[in-house]
Each structure stands twice: as C-alpha cells, then as structure tokens.
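Chain X:
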Amino acid sequence: MVSAKQKGSNVENEIKALLESKEWKVIKSPRTMKCIGPGRFISMDNDYFNLFDLIAKNKLGKTLWIQAKSTASGVSSAKQGIEDFETYLGEDEKSQIWLKVSRKGFIVYNYDIGKWNKSYLKLDGSYSKEFTLDGEEK
C-alpha cells in the first residue's frame, strides 16, 4: 500500500515529466526533515507559498504555479487559496490545480480573470473529451 505522501509525490513526478516532455522547465517544492525529538525526524512538505507543489516555466516566459492533487478532497480549499494568491501574479503567470484521474490523466483547473476553467489532459499530453473521476470517458 502506498502512503498518501508517496501517492502525492508520484502525482507531482507525473506532472513534472509530462510538462518537461513539452519543453517546460519544472521545479518541485523541496521536502525537509524536522526534528521532533532525540533521534526522531519527520519529512515535511514545503509548498511554495503553502499552496504550490510545482513551478513550471517555458521558453516564452510563461509561468505555471501548480497544486497537484491525487484525490478530489481538498480541491475546493486549494481553489480558495489560489484565488487569494492570484493578485500577486503577473500577466504571463497562471495558477492551476492538477487532479489525477486514475489511468486516464488529469483534470486541470485553470484560474483566469476571476473564474475557474476545466480541461482534461491525457497521460500522453493530448487533450481529451471530458472524463469522470473514475476514469470513464463521457
């Protein structure tokens, strides 16, 4: 059984590989170790601005700030955080939430000019018809 941290890290790695195949430069937020007692450490996330797991930049100067999700829970709270953060982004910067859909790809939520748009991205990087969270195409 895969831990929640490992599942999240796997999703981040999939997104990173997919974007890099499209010639984006991608960095992941680093994990750090925190001492919780003598000889005891835990691994902690260090999301950028406590919101984003990845930052991607292309040769045209566009930047993507990405929150990766392995399950649909937490998407609404991530949306609220991103909406609050959006005022700090420049013209060529976009905030996104990538939700992994098992064996199909990702639902990508884009926040742009005060509203959320949704697209469906297959694992091969192509866009798809709509599909549900259980992976069934509509």
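Chain Y:
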Amino acid sequence: MAKVIDEALKSRIQDLAPIIEKANQLPDLWLAFKARIAKDPHILSKSSAACHLTRIAFERDPIIDLSPYDLSEELLAKLLLDAPARTVHLETLSLSGNQFVGPDLLRRIIATYPALRTLHLLNTPNIPLKVKLDLVR
C-alpha cells in the first residue's frame, strides 16, 4: 500500500485516474492514505495530487476531522469546496485548533454542506465567538 501511496503523491493530477482505480480495489488504502497525510500535513501544500487525493479520500465520509491538520484557508477551501470531490453527505466537521480558518470560509462551508449538523470549532482564534454563535443559529 505504501508503494501505491508514494506513486500517487508523486504523480500529476492528470495521471491519477489509473492509480485511483487501483486504490479503490484495495480496501484499506484510503485509510492508510489519510494516516500518511496526518503524519505530514504539509505535503498538501506541496503537492496538487495530495490535495486532490485527500478530497477523494474524504468524499464518502460523513465525519471529517481536520483538527490534526493546521491548514491554511486556501488549502481548506481546496479540500472542502473545490469540485469534483465534494462530500455532500458531510454531517460532522472538526476544524478545532486551526489557526487560519476565518468567518468567510466558515460561511461558505456551511452553505456548501446542507447536511452539516455538527461543527467543532474549539481554539479557532480567527473566528470570534459571536460569529460562531450567529453562524450556527
């Protein structure tokens, strides 16, 4: 599995289709991929393929925990808002501990995911408490 992940991370986005097809045949590959990204979240800012694959890995998850990743707003937008891999069934999202996420991105995330019912925003200093309360009402 590590070999497939390494190959995917080094690939160009346009060359990922056969790798993704192979990945979908390996039952635990997406879990292993998420673990790999959790170990080195900075790879998302260095590799377009990593960002694209992470969107796919989260695509079917009703619960996404991005708290281990201290991602910029730009990367969060790529992961959560960019097509084609959009998790329309997202019910729970954790952005706790993210030092970069702001109110505008949070509004866009809430608008994008109508099924979103739980949002974890502990220790997100760029979003004032009043804004958090107003957004979830």
